Amino acid sequence: MITTKLEEYRTEIEQIDKDILVLFKERIEFVKLVFEFKDDHDIPIEDPKREKYLTSKIDDQNLFQFYNTMITCSKSLGVLHLCEKTLAKTKKLLNDELGV
């Protein structure tokens, strides 16, 4: 009985984790779009006012830390995306120059 209840809890947690990952992947795709937009329009990547606005709505310290970490990861992935995009453009220009 105890093991069955524990397994039920674990199954629910696993489903929630799957849902969170799907949403996080979706969020990352939008982060990439935001970073591309900012890059194309010479808008600074960092937006402390926006981050403060987003985190100000969180009153639970554990959730605040989690959300802050998610924002940091998102920014890192956004920067990585821009670097990859820039590298691809540079490779294409070099290939075009060299006639490859």
**Count of domains:** 1
Helix share, percent = over 70%
Q: Average pLDDT, to the nearest integer?
A: 92
At CATH level 3, the topology is Chorismate Mutase Domain, subunit A
The main pleated sheet reads as: none
CATH level 4 superfamily: Chorismate mutase
Order of helices and strands: HHH
End-to-end Cα distance, whole Å, is: 67 Å
Unreliable spans are: none
Radius of gyration: 20 Å
Explain how this protein is built.
- It is a single chain.
- This protein has 3 helices and no strands.
- The protein is mainly alpha-helical and 100 residues long.
- α1 packs across α3.
- 2% of the residues are buried.
- The mean pLDDT is 92.
Salient structural properties:
mainly alpha; 100 residues; single chain; 86% helix; Chorismate Mutase Domain, subunit A
What does the secondary structure layout of this molecule look like, with pairings?
Layout lengths: L1 H39 L7 H9 L4 H38 L2
Helix pairs in contact: 1-3
Summary, kept brief:
With 100 residues, the chain is mainly α. The chain has one domain: Chorismate Mutase Domain, subunit A.
